[in-house]
Amino acid sequence: MNDIYDDIISIKKALKLNNEDLGSLLNKSGDTFRKSMSRKSLSDFELKALLKTLSNVNSEKDSDTLSKIQEALNKIRTKIQKNKQLIRDKILLVDEENELLSRIKGDPAYLDLFTDHNDESEIKVNEPSEIYPTKSGNIIEELANGKYLLTVPMVPYKAHATYISEFTDAEYISDLTKVSFIVDRIPRGKYQAFEIQNDSMNDATLERGPSREAILNGDIVLGRELGKQHWTSKLNTNNYPYWIIVHKNTIVCKEIINHDVENGTITCHSLNDSPEFQDFDLKLDDCHQLFNIIKKQV
């Protein structure tokens, strides 16, 4: 089986790109990117970011090329999850674990394994000291490092249409796949996660990669629901610019750039500046739910 670097070389040829093109997506020069490829020294985070960007900015390419990109992306995602599981399950010999830790330390793909700025050399102790459900159906685990693990239902993209008709059904919600996020404080309110499956919030170009604000195809975002009783007051779009909007016909992830309280409308904006992603207004009367986005998994 080809390794991930062989896959990238094949994809580069198929897309007729050069090292300068690919390096620019990672803020590297073409020569630095070439050396990184030769030494196989790109971090797993960089490999995943590169493949996600190629997938998003080349969405109109032939299906064979997109399939190659997706296969490579799945390969690196599987590698990351496997490495995390090996560390968390503590099934490696001491020397094996130390060798793995030396390779992944400092790689943002594994940031959730390590303590924050106080001591970046130690692994987080993810044994919960207390587990309790919330009234809204979320599960909170208090971790030994002072943070909290929030477990919530996740609506995959393929279930968006079903969710629109079933979102009030508690049994349906409880049967959804669960995902977890590490948070700094005890969460208040109802939280839910959604899978993103389009390019509208991807601000990447061939000249540069996506910004930190971008929400990419395949990302899973954590949202906190804002009850309808609050919709008649100005939405807090300064602190929470990005939202999941459950409309009667669709579910969208957008930046809300204006809330006309008097007329009950919101203006939705995409980070992708392609002409196909124009701003548009929605009537709040036609919306079922609003979730302000708190965090994202990539």
> Main beta sheet: strand number and arrangement?
11 strands, mixed
Computed structural class: alpha+beta
Instruction: Work out the radius of gyration.
Output: 21 Å
Order of helices and strands: HHHHHHEEEHHEEEEEEEE
Globally, the shape reads: globular
Helix content: 25-40%
For the termini, the CA-CA separation is 25 Å
* Tally of individual helices: 8
Low-confidence runs of at least 5 consecutive residues:
115-129
What integer is the average pLDDT?
A: 84
How many extended strands? Answer: 11
Content of β-strand? 15-25%
Oligomeric organization of the protein chains: single chain
What does this molecule look like?
This protein is α+β, with helices and mostly antiparallel strands. Helix content is 32%, strand content 24%. The protein contains 8 helices and 11 strands. Strands 1, 2, 3, 4, 5, 6, 7, 8, 9, 10 and 11 form an 11-stranded mixed sheet that branches. β1 (128-133) and β2 (139-143) form a beta hairpin. It is globular and about 60 Å long.
Summarize the model shown.
This protein is α+β, with helices and mostly antiparallel strands. The chain has eight helices and eleven strands. The chain is 32% helix and 24% strand.
Name a few traits of the molecule.
298 residues; alpha+beta; eleven-stranded mixed beta sheet; 8 helices; globular
Topology:
Layout: H1 4-15, H2 19-25, H3 30-39, H4 44-57, H5 63-89, H6 94-104, E1 128-133, E2 139-143, E3 148-155, H7 160-166, H8 170-175, E4 178-183, E5 191-195, E6 220-225, E7 242-247, E8 251-260, E9 265-269, E10 280-283, E11 287-297
Parallel strand pairs: 3-5
Antiparallel strand pairs: 1-2, 2-3, 3-4, 5-6, 6-11, 7-8, 7-11, 8-9, 9-10
